[in-house]
Amino acid sequence: MLGLWRKIRRTGRVAQSAPPRPEGDRPVAAMGLGGSVQIRHVDAGSCNGCEVEIGSAFGPVYDAERYGARLVASPRHADALVVTGPVTRNMAEPLRRTFDAVPGPKLVVAVGDCARNCGVFAGAYGVTGAASDVVPVDVEIAGCPPRPEAIVEGLRKLTGR
Ligand code: SF4
Predict the structure, then answer these.
(1) Burial (0-12, 13-18, 19+ Cβ within 10 Å), 55
(2) What pTM was estimated for this model as a whole?
(3) Which of 41, 83, 117, 120 for mutating ligand 1's site (highest number of atoms within 8 Å of CB)?
(4) Any idea where the NADH:ubiquinone oxidoreductase-like 20kDa subunit domain is (predicted)?
(5) Which atom of ligand 1 is nearest to the CA of 47?
(6) Cα 141 to ligand 1 centroid, rounded to whole Å
(7) Is 43 in the pocket of ligand 1 (CB under 6 A)?
(8) Which of these, 91, 77, 90, 80, lies nearest to 43 by C-alpha position?
(9) Are strands 107-111 and 37-43 parallel, antiparallel or unpaired?
(10) Beta strands, E only, the chain
(11) By CB count within 10 A, which of 28, 71, 94, 152 is most buried?
(12) Cα of 139 to ligand 1 centre, how many Å?
């Protein structure tokens, strides 16, 4: 055990140094979060490409948690929703209800082109619209799918770290 502690002490921190803080204004509702944001993810009709990249953003390489962003299971424990995909007819009401369940002040992040403007699914018969057609969106992250770096950058705008 002592050997392990010595090794940890000798090795020190191995994480890459953080990239500079993203530019741009922090949403007003994020000001009171104190550098930490609890996030509930809602897949409103995604192809799952955005989910793969969100998984990477919270993985050990990009590590969004070190900037204070954390995924939670319940909207009642969340400060923000991360919405992916175009909002399908079946998901419009669940998305609305999930938004209502988040205690205020709350934020919504639209991740990916589909959540921003329906992307490649624009005009499809099963699509109600973009995320902003159903709930108010504070931050948009472009890309199909967005790179994990872009997702982490967008979440850092909420945490301010
Ligand atoms: S933005 Fe691209 S990767 Fe994300 S859900 Fe739409 S089609 Fe899939």
Answers:
(1) middle
(2) 0.89
(3) 120
(4) 47-158
(5) 8
(6) 12
(7) no
(8) 91
(9) unpaired
(10) 37-43, 69-71, 80-84, 87-88, 107-111, 127-129, 139-141
(11) 152
(12) 17
- What residue owns the CA closest to ligand 1's atom 2? 144
Give yes or no for a contact between 137 and 27, defined as CB atoms under 8 angstroms apart. no
Give yes or no for a contact between 158 and 33, defined as CB atoms under 8 angstroms apart: yes
Contact 161, 68 (CB under 8 A): yes
| Residues in contact with 121: Cβ distance below 8 Å, sequence separation at least 6, in sequence order | 45, 85, 86, 114, 127
Express each pLDDT in 47-60 by its tens digit: 999 999 999 999 98
d(CA 102, CA 117): 23
| Ranges of each domain in the chain | 29-159
Fold type of domain 29-159: Rossmann fold (3.40.50)
User: Per residue in 117-131, pLDDT tens?
Assistant: 999 999 999 999 999
Ligand 1 center to 48 CA (angstroms): 7
